Amino acid sequence: MTDSLNTVTDADFDASLDLKLERVVPVAPELVWKAWTEPEHLVHWFTPAPWKTAACEIDLRPGGKFRTVMQSPEGELVDSTGCYLVVEPGRQIVFTDALGPAFRPNATSFMTAVITIEPHGDGTRYVAVARHKSPEDRQSHLDMGFADGWGSALDQLVAYVNTW
Amino acid sequence: MTDSLNTVTDADFDASLDLKLERVVPVAPELVWKAWTEPEHLVHWFTPAPWKTAACEIDLRPGGKFRTVMQSPEGELVDSTGCYLVVEPGRQIVFTDALGPAFRPNATSFMTAVITIEPHGDGTRYVAVARHKSPEDRQSHLDMGFADGWGSALDQLVAYVNTW
C-alpha cells in the first residue's frame, strides 16, 4: 500500500538521523489504529512498564493536540504536548514535539514519529520511525533504549488489544 | 468558506503569541495562490525591497521542503529551510521553520505561518498569521517590522501579478 501514501515514505529515511522499529504483529490494522488513536486505549500500552501513562489527550487531525504524561514508579512525571502532522485513517500517523496544537512552535523539540501500518496476512506490518534533528539526538534516543522501549510498548499494545 | 477548512482557523489565534495581517487585495485568489506556490513567481515578491529573494525551493505537500534565501543589498544571505504543514489548493498554506523536509525537527525555530485566502468580490481576502512559541518571539517579530514587512511583500505580490 505504501506507494499510494501521499505523505511520508521509506524514501525519507536517513540512517544517520533516524531510528526504525519494524515488526509484524498478530493484530488487525484497525485494532492497532484504535489503540493508537483513542486516549482510553492508549493509556493501557503506550509507556513501557514499570512506567505508566498517567494522562493522554488526542485531537486526531493535523495540528491537533497529542499530549501524553508518563509516570515513573516513584511518581516522576514527563509531560509532553505535541501535535499531529499526518492522520491517514488506518494507515499512518505522524506527530511531533517540535510543534504544539495549531502547529505552534514548541520551545524545545526532540523528534517526529512516523507510525505506518498495513495489513500483513491476518496481522499488521508495523513500522515506527523516530526522526531527529542531529546524530547526537539520535544517539541519545538509542541510549535511552529506543529499540527495547518502543518494542515493549508494541508488545503491550498487542497484549492489551488481545483482551478485547 | 472558512467553516469548511478542516485545518487552521481563526479559533486558533492567540493575541499574546500571534501576529496577523488581514487585507483585501484586487487580485483573484488563484493568482495569489500561484504567486505563493511556484518558485519562479515567489522570488519576484516574497522579500520586501531593498532585500530580494535569491533562491526558492518548493515541494508543495505536507512535509515538503519550503526553502527561501533572502539577500540584503550588501549581499548578506538569510537561508531558511522549513516545510509545509497544510496545502489546501487555492485556500490555505501553512508552513513552519520548526520542521524541515519530511517533518524532521530543525535545530531552531521561529514561527509557523498560516496564509488563508478566499474570494472577496473580484479580489481576495488575504489573512496571514505568524504563530510564535513565546511573547518574546512575537515581540521580536514586531520589532523586525512584521506589519510593514509582510504588508510590503503583499504589495509586491499584487504589483507583480498585475504584470501577468
Describe what you observe in this structure.
Two copies of one chain form a homodimer. With 164 residues, chain A is α+β, with helices and mostly antiparallel strands. Chain A has a single domain, classed as START domain (Alpha-D-Glucose-1,6-Bisphosphate, Chain A, domain 4, 2-Layer Sandwich), CATH 3.30.530. Helix content of chain A is 23%, strand content 35%. Chain A is built from four helices and seven strands, in the order βααββββββαα. In chain A, strands 1-7-6-5-4-3-2 form a seven-stranded antiparallel β-sheet. Chain A starts with 17 loop residues before the first strand and ends with a helix. The mean pLDDT of chain A is 94.
Number of E strands of chain A: 7
Mean pLDDT of chain A: 94
At the first level of CATH, what is the class of chain A?
Alpha Beta
**What is the subunit arrangement here?**
homodimer
Please indicate the count of domains of chain A.
Answer: 1
Main β-sheet description of chain A: 7 strands, antiparallel
Q: Give the name of the CATH superfamily of chain A.
A: START domain
Whole-Å distance between the termini of chain A? 27 Å
Share of β-strand residues of chain A? 25-35%
Q: Which segments of chain A are poorly predicted (pLDDT under 50) over 5 or more consecutive residues?
A: none
CATH topology of chain A: Alpha-D-Glucose-1,6-Bisphosphate, Chain A, domain 4
Helix content of chain A: 10-25%
Physical arrangement of strands within the biggest beta sheet of chain A: 1-7-6-5-4-3-2
Q: How large, in whole angstroms, is the Cα Rg of chain A?
A: 15 Å
Q: What's the tally of helices of chain A?
A: 4
**Helix-strand string of chain A:** EHHEEEEEEHH
Q: Which two protein chains have the largest interface (Cβ within 8 Å of the partner's Cβ), and how many residues from each? A: A-B, 33 and 33 residues
Globally, the shape of chain A reads: globular
What structural class results from the helix and strand content of chain A? alpha+beta
- Per CATH, the architecture of chain A is 2-Layer Sandwich
